[in-house]
Amino acid sequence: MRLGLFGTGYAGLVTSVCLAQLGHTVTAIDKNPDIVARLSDGVPTIHEPGLEELLTSNLEADRLSFTTKAEDAVCASDMIFVCVGTPPRSDGHADLSQVEEVARTIASMLDGYKLIVEKSTVPARTAHWIDWTIRRLAGREREFDIASNPEFLREGSAVRDFLHPDRIVIGADSERARSLLLDLYQSSFDCPIIVTSVTTAELIKQAANAFLATKISFINLVSDLCEKLDVDVTTVAKGIGLDPRIGRDFLNAGLGFGGSCLPKDVSALIRVAGSSGVDVGMLKEVERINVARIDRLLGKVERALWVLPQKVIGVLGVSFKPDTDDIRGAPSLGVIPRLHSTGAILRVYDPAAVRNFERFHPPDDRLSYVASAYDAARDAHALVILTDWNEFRSLDFGRIRTLMRTPVVVDGRNLFEPSQMQAAGFEYYSLGRGDVSLHPEPRRERT
Ligand SMILES: NC(=O)c1ccc[n+]([C@@H]2O[C@H](COP(=O)([O-])OP(=O)(O)OC[C@H]3O[C@@H](n4cnc5c(N)ncnc54)[C@H](O)[C@@H]3O)[C@@H](O)[C@H]2O)c1
């Protein structure tokens, strides 16, 4: 099939590369000329395992091209995917201005039947607004359909997730749209395909993300209770998660959820449900618990180091999760400025995301970006772990101990066994498990 796609960010780039890999001819548009130039040269604009190989091979096979000119894609395609951003507005609603802009662009170029497919995560009923926008501008007689085909890929494993989905959701209100999307997917995938209405598909995506966020906040609430009861949250999570009705994924206590999707999608669902008169108290608690994780971690840092000005702190990880350079919604955006404001000296390391973080927080006399975890540990009074990169799991902690001024680790991701860190000679603070601390005072929790 000839496919067009608007927006080559994290979701759109993976989608366009993978659709080309499935044998379709994809023309992807981005309004950012730098992104288009780099992608046309085969240079990935995001860090995503497996992406570069597929990008170059599909460019060489002439199945994939990038352009800033919308007409190149709209006129040449039967189906147009909308993958532009839907970031949060300051009032918590999804900002749909990029989606509206695409609708207006398509309306000005309609030259025959097109299927316009929402892949961006949008509030329920957004398709109605797109339909209305296009009809108003292009005329009621124009032939097109709007469908919803939400994307469930996860950054860090996005290529694998796209090519091996656990389900595909197709929201279509016309037979023509349904059969076009079924043709696209049925020949390539044997996973369950849920065919439903457009509004249902839109809601499935937002509800899925809200549920995942709820699971994370739930285990973090249990984690706080575990600390009071001297119980290890990891064991509790295992005991809960082996129940197949619950499942083990997303039951890792720690710094909470971040990224460009979960926080904004919970927030948008709260606004949509709230304005429909539905009680959204539960989702507000999910948000509140998540935001409080930052205070929880900073409390541990203070307890571990007491006076913070001029203390050297190595920070490991700024991306919101491992295997990505994405820092949107990352806990590091909350933790690092607050540590910096205490007067501490910060040495920050991340395997992929420093370039993005530097734009937000340029280096200064108390904040530097270093080339390895060992450099972050050198002369440090404490190491603070913010992202669960695999690389951190396999660090040589014997070497780290000799590099550090005081062997203190504050682990926001519960990467290590407290007993092993104690045996390795560290004071070790984590979340929801007993702290290994030489602190002279008994712990007094704030009430
Ligand atoms: N990032 C993820 O892991 C993920 C997963 C599933 C769904 N989603 C959803 O996909 C959507 C996109 O997310 P993202 O993370 O890729 O966003 P992003 O901000 O990384 O990318 C958006 C891209 O769209 C481009 N753009 C904006 N307006 C345009 C226009 N009028 N014409 C052409 N290009 C335009 C921007 O230049 C940018 O490159 C969001 O709704 C998000 O919720 C994201």
Automatic annotation (TrEMBL):
Ranges for domain UDP-glucose/GDP-mannose dehydrogenase C-terminal come to: 314-418
Family annotation (InterPro entries) = 6-PGluconate_DH-like_C_sf, NAD(P)-bd_dom_sf, UDP-Glc/GDP-Man, UDP-Glc/GDP-Man_DH_C, UDP-Glc/GDP-Man_DH_C_sf, UDP-Glc/GDP-Man_DH_dimer, UDP-Glc/GDP-Man_DH_N, UDPglc_DH_bac
- GO molecular-function term, one example from the UniProt record: UDP-glucose 6-dehydrogenase activity
Task: Summarize where NAD(+) binds, as residue positions.
Answer: 30, 86, 121, 155, 264, 328
Its top-level enzyme class, in one word, is: oxidoreductase
Q: What does it catalyze?
A: UDP-alpha-D-glucose + 2 NAD(+) + H2O = UDP-alpha-D-glucuronate + 2 NADH + 3 H(+)
Binding positions (substrate):
152-155, 205, 250-254, 258, 321
What EC number(s) does this enzyme carry? 1.1.1.22
| Assigned keywords, A-Z | NAD, Oxidoreductase
State the family it belongs to: Belongs to the UDP-glucose/GDP-mannose dehydrogenase family.
Quote the protein name from its UniProt record.
UDP-glucose 6-dehydrogenase
Give the organism, scientific name: Candidatus Segetimicrobium genomatis
